[in-house]
Amino acid sequence: MLRERHGLTVIESFVEGLATDLLFDVVIIRHVLEHLENPLQVITSLRAHLKENGLLLVIVPNIDCIGTLLFREYWTWVLPYHCHFFTPPSLKALLTRADLTVEKSYQTPSPLWYPESFLRYAGLGGKIAELYRRLSIATLLPFAPLVGLGALIGKSDNITMFARK
What we know:
Helix content: 25-40%
Number of domains: 1
Radius of gyration: 18 Å
CATH superfamily: Vaccinia Virus protein VP39
Number of helices: 7
Shape: elongated
Structural class: alpha+beta
CATH architecture: 3-Layer(aba) Sandwich
CATH topology: Rossmann fold
Oligomer: single chain
């Protein structure tokens, strides 16, 4: 869509596969860092591919969200395929350590995981959780107050940070 609608050059690649001479105005990594063995190494590599004053946009789950506080180890994002967990201060520290300047940070809610986490917490995971998740938006409504509370107290589910070279 970005290519067609806006005429932008979009490259989808692993960091290791990027040509060493490629430089970008903007690099976006969304729900990637938490899966990597060495996030600092990847951020440092991405920084090397940013033009002077280039922007890195990072989005990761927030381990310090209302869902984790309520459901603890049953929270859906506390799974074996997440190697690292981030809070707003720890993500900022990582970006700063990679010699980037964080310009903006905010949190956003993600109510999609609350029904499944609740069922796991209640010991009703598996097929019931899959059925519940597929029903409709109505399955999310009982959790709207929790999502709102998380946003209100600064404990939403996702962290978004903009960092500049």
